[in-house]
Every structure is written in C-alpha cells, then in structure tokens.
Amino acid sequence: MKLSTLLTSAILVSTLVSCNAKKSNKKTFVYCSEGSPTAFNPQVTSDGTSNNASAHTVYNRLVEFKRGTTEIGPALAESYTISDDKKTYTFNLRKGVKFHTTKFFTPTREFNADDVMFSFNRMYKKNHSFHKVSGGTYEYFNGMGMSSLIKDIVKVNDYQIKIILNQPEAPFLANMAMSFMSVLSAEYGANLEKANKKEEIDNYPVGTGPFVYQSYQKDNVIKYKANKSFFNGAPKINKLVFSITPDSSVRYQKLKAGECHLIIEPSPSDLDAMKTAENIKLQTGAGLNVGYLAMNTEKAPFNNTDVRKAINMALNRGSYIDAIYLGHAKVAKNPLPPTIWSYNDAVSDYNFNPEKAKALLAKAGYKDGFETTLWTLPVSRPYNPNGKKMGELMQADLAKIGIKVKLVSYDWPTYLKKSSQGEHQMLQLGWSGDNGDPDNFLHILLGCQGVKAGSNYARWCNKDFDSLVNKAKLITDKTERSALYKKAQIIFKDMAPWVTIAHSTIFRAMAKNVEGYIIDPLGGDMFDKVDLK
Amino acid sequence: MKSFLKDKILQLIPTLVGISLFSFFIIRLVPGDPVMLMLGERGADPKIYQEMTQSLGLDKPVLEQYAIYMKNAVQGDFGKSIVSKRSVTSEFFARFPATLELGVCAMIFAILLGIPAGVYAAVHRNSLPDYLLMGSSLVGYSMPIFWWGLILIIIFSVTLGVTPVSGRLSVMFDVPSMTGFMLIDSLSPEVISEEGFAPFISAVRHLILPTIAMGTIPLAVVARMTRSSVLEVLSAPYVQTAKAKGQSFNKVVWRHAFRNALIPIVTVIGLLFGSIITGAILTETIFSWPGIGKWLVASIHARDYPVIQGGILFIATMVIAINFLVDIIYTYVNPKIR
User: Fold this and answer.
1) How far A74 CA lies from chain B's nearest CA (Å)?
2) CB contact A444 to B (< 8 Å)
3) Which range marks the domain in which residue B252 is found?
4) Of A14, A217, A455, the CB nearest to B202
5) CA B119, CA B226: separation in Å to the nearest integer?
6) What pLDDT is attached to residue A13?
7) Number of structural domains, chain B?
8) Residue A180: is its pLDDT beyond 80?
9) Largest alpha-carbon pair distance within chain A?
10) How close, in Å, is residue B45 to chain A by CA atoms?
11) B269 occurs within a structural domain
C-alpha cells in the first residue's frame, strides 16, 4: 500500500472513530479555558482560572452567590442567623449532602460540621495539621481580613456551627460566599494525613459540588463527571471537559471547528465575526470592574481638589471607550460598577470641558499648567486593555489644558510595589470585584486604612467618606447600608481623587446548541445548569 | 573512545555549576518580586507582604539562598514552585515528554524532507527545481511560526476539517500517562483493549500540524545546508575521480559525496535540536501543547524563581546531552575525529 493511501485511510478511520465518540458522548460539554489551574483547592489559589476548575465545579460554600447575581443565598448551610450584636453568625448545615466518590477516596459518612471546622481551621489556626501544607499563605483568607476578623469558630453540633467575630462586619457574609471559603472533606484529610500525603488535598479534590473530578493532564485537559447526587439537582450534562487553550484566536478556531462548546474571553477583534457566525452565539454581561486614573493626593499639585476636578474635565473618556475598549465598555462615573447594589445613579459626572478645566486650573494657581508624570498600566486587564495607548490619549488631552505629562512605565511587580508605597503622581489602575459587596470597592480602594495597606492608590483619606464607609460595615440592614454608600459616592465625586474611566463588558462565545449558561458578574464560569440541545 | 567520553563528562560539571549560578542570579536581577505579583492590585500590606516573603524563604540574603538551593539541588531537590507549590522536578518531567515528542517529530520531518530536497537541489544546481526548492525554503525560514500555525489551523482544521485544531489527544479518550509520550502511552495494552487504536490515531492526528509548524524552519535550514555542503563536496577531486572511474551517478552522490557532506549537516541538526527544545514556546502556545516552553514563560511572568532556575538547568543539561550525542555521531561519520 502506498504511503499516501495509508495516511488517507488512517485519517478516514480516525474521523469515523471520533465521530462515533462524539455521538456516544453527546452530553459531554467541552469548555475551552484560558490557562491551567495552579491547584485544585481555592483556599490556596487566588486566580479565576483555578476557581473555575475547583470552586465552581467540585466544591460548595456554606452560602453562595445566586446564579448570575451577587446576591447571597443558601448552599451547604440551609439557613443562618446573626446575633443582635452582629458579631455571631450561626449556620444551620444541610443534611444528606454526600461527598464525591473518586478513584482516590470513598466517603463513609455525609457532610457535617466537622468538614466545615476542618476547612476553615486549616486557614485560620496556625497549629492546624494542614496549615503549612502548600506554603500556608492563604492569600485571600488573609487578604480579605478574615484572620483578624474571626475570633472563634465553634462546632455547636453536627449540623450547626458558629463563627464569632471580633467586631461587626457586614461584608462578612459576602466573604463567606467567596471561593476560598469552600468546604473540603475532613475524612479525606484524615486519610491523607494517615498516608502521609497531605499535599494531595490541594491537587486531588474531593468536594460536594455538581461535578466530580476525574483526571488532569497538566496544561492540557481536566475531566469531570456529573455528580448525580448533587444536592441542588444533578447537572444536565454527563461529562465536563476543560480543554486548556491559552491563545484566544485558537479558542475561536476550536469553537468554529466544533471542538469546544463554550470559550472564555474571546478576543475583542473576533467579536464582530462571532456576531454574524452561523453556529455561534455571544453572551454579554456587565463586568464587576472599574478602570481608573488615581491622583496621588499626598503630593502637590494633586492635593488641590480643583486640580483634580480640572483633570476630570480635561479627559475625553468617551473617546477612550472606542479606542481602547473597542466599544466594549461604559464610561464610569462612580467607583462602583452599576451592577452593584447601592450604586448611586444620581451622582452627576464631570463632563468633558477643557475650557472649564483650564479655568479651574487657573483658580488653583496653575494658570500655565504644570509638569507631571503619569504611570501607564504595563499589563492588559479587562478594566484597561491597553494602558500605554490610553496614556498617550490622556497625555494629548492634558496638553490641551497646559499640563505636560511624561509617561512612565515599569514592569508589573515594580509598578505595584512603587505605587502601593505612593511613589507616583498619577497612575492608571483598576479593580475587579471579589464578592459584589460595595465595601470591597469603597473601603479597600478609598478608605483611610487602604493608604497604609497599599490598596488606596490615590492615598486619599477623607474623614467624612471614611466614617460613612466604616459605619456601613457595622450595619447588616442592606437599605441602611445602601444609603450610607450612596452618600459616600457623592463625597467621592465631589473630592475627585480619581478619574473614573470605564466598566468593561464580559463576553462568552458558545455553540448555538448550548442552553442554560448565564454570565457570572464575578467572572466565573459555572456549568451545573448548562445543557446541550 | 573512553578518555573522549571521560573528558566530555568532566567538562559537564563546571558548565552546569556556571548555568546554575547564572540562572539563579540573573532572575533575581530582573525587577519585581513574586510576592507583589501574587498580591496584585490589592497592594502590599507590609504585614502580609513580610509574612509571605518569609514563608517563601525570600527574606534571607541572596548568597544564603543560593547556598541552600545548591545544597538541596545536589541531593536532587530543586525546590517547589512558588505558584503551584509542587516540586519543580515533577512539574518539569510531567511536561518534558510532550516537548520532546513534538521536537523529535519536527526534526524527523525536517530531516526526511530537508536532506533529499537539499541533495536534489545540489545535484540539479541552477535548474528550475533548485530555484523552487531553495526559494520555498527561504519562505519557510522567514515565516513567523505564530502566523504559520494559525494558517495551518484555518486551512486544515477549520476549512478542510482533516486535523484537530489543538491539544494532544481528543478529549473523548482517556490515556493514563505512563511514559508521558502520547504515541507510546496510547499503544499500551490497557488502552488498546479498552478503546482500540483510536487514541493512537487521534494522537498522530494531533501531532501533524504542530510538527509541520515547528519543523518548517529546521526543514529550510537543513535543506539549504545540505545543498551547499553537497555542492562543495561534488566539486572535490575524489568525487571527480569516482566519476571518471565510471561509477554510477547514485553511487557517486550517496556513497562518496553525501557521506563527506554529512558532517556540517549533523552539526546543524544537533544545534537545531537544541534550539527546538528551547524554542518550543510559540508552537506550544498556538497548539495548546502541554510542554515546557509555555510553562517556563508563565513562570518568568510570575517570577517563579525555583521553576526558572530548575527549568533552565534541566534544559541546559538536555541541550548539552544532545550535543554530546552529536559529538559521538561525528566519530562514526568521520572516524578521524576520534
């Protein structure tokens, strides 16, 4: 047989085989993800890619965000109560929840309070036998302030636990719904400890979630099967596959070739073609993010409110939306994205007005303008895809009112380090929300504590703003909190420590036969209700 | 031969120590530290920053860090990745077979096509086929891999539908990793008894496009090198003598000319093989190929010091080993070198 005939028949046979495979597995859902998870335990990871591969598939939390929203609903805890002093949260756990049976673990009991104690204490107690496993840094648990906030975690009985706080903290419940508060199996932990293989807990996950982990080939493919006894209803698909495809153009080609059902983060330049493609549909959602220009209020001339207002008026943000975000974003007027409760739509924005800006500069004593530096974002982020180009547009806009801007850039870690120490004058940055709570934006990014912690890049400490935001932390009533945050946003706009630039849009592209997928405002991908028609 | 081997092995030790020193300090000269990258936009709270630096052992003086690193490395422990917290050795060897498999296929592709093309062009010097072959090899050499890979995908995967877009194996199959080489693992008795030859065929199909994309530049280099090397030899007096003795054309070309032309070709192939392993980054990214190229680039972005140090050291060892093999091959091609 000739070589060419042999090759042709091999290709034909394999095409037939793969067609058959596709037929027999029509409920296998292939998700083309963008990267490899760093581990399979959200307690020790901090990136969205790892959360998709573990927190949203394998694990559950006591409370969780309701699908497609940032509202908090029951999950492993059926209900919870908050004490009058707002310091004790009592969680009533769900009965009859089963942990996954996998190749490496077979549970002998159902989920109970021991699992919650094991999971939380691993991060909270330094003497816990698993605390040091995988480095023991727990970036999110510490970053969200949980280690200093929690006073004690108490098991009341097998189906009730209490978490006692050092002080009232309204966003605590939103923190509890975040990926890092996932619940792991204590029994599995004990087995691993006995076998002296503790680190496997972070790489071979056992949870209660909608999908059971089956296998992972590094940088290549992750496989799950449906958890038929999932407490929130068995998934409609039988198998879930993450096909790791880092390049966005290749993801698009795979979607076109029918090798994926859904792709994460399509390239903005492919969006128009996707809109008209026959077998593809696009879903869009408002991203829970904000891109901003922070002015260092500790340094002259940015310690002058009029100068900051003038810069707000001098920048033509509408033009950035087209040039930088290719139209896939909205001009931001508040530090909060509009999808977060307590967003104050009544705040009036600074309109683009170079003449008025000039007048304000003159009033502030800078009739002839001044020279300054602007740090441009060195990485591409959803909240600012091209910092350098945006910097050039800003430079041109500011030149029109007499401000001579020198653009500066550093590599990303240096940029973060220098700016969190306040070395900059103006800088571009942004934020993607962690938990949908307004506190996660207003307190972290603009509170006085953030100046010391290095997350308040405008280094703006306004007592009125700070007291409103701090007061809102102590109240659990949403209406009351909302009123305080709305007031805080008015002060923010009036004092103008930032130029709020944009809230970008999230996209997901999928095959036409995909049903039941909802975009998550927090950027995660969940497949428990997804179906293939 | 024995002393030749001994010398070569002894030369390895200072080279490896030098590389370890270089990789250890050069990455620390690059601005930015891994802890800041982990903290991201959240900023560096001094307390949290200090705790994290301590837990990663980065608070110690650099020389002390190097001493600890070398002490462990000599015992085979290259540390744990800052990002994944897993051992660098296991992370490397989980990915290396994928790169090696692709690299070997790309080199076989380049050699099988490049050498005959080069010899043919040399023998038919200044003819139309010579111009065509050398012209297309110049195009192949100048082609950006990223663009070439995407073009291959659009033609063969999306338009014609004959090859898969990316990956190593259809997601429908489960092939447990034993050797890490998909072509071997997919032929294990366990896999064959469960799924037949379908996984093997799938693995071959997944290899076609990345092999072409990765092998194109080496193919062009091998073809051009072969042509010029054979041309040089063809005009040598002993070839003329062989011709004058009335030996057949094929015998003159393949026995007399080609064997002597082979030394520079083997050198180039050896060098290309080294560069193919280190230069797999683009091909691996386009074809979502789970090899070491992509892994190392990600670790550089994350300033994952142990991975960068270990990765560079392992790759350097592989490249040295390949060149070592090339030296041995020389001695067979041309015994005068021994």
Assistant:
1) 28
2) yes
3) 97-302
4) A14
5) 6
6) 45
7) 1
8) yes
9) 89
10) 4
11) yes
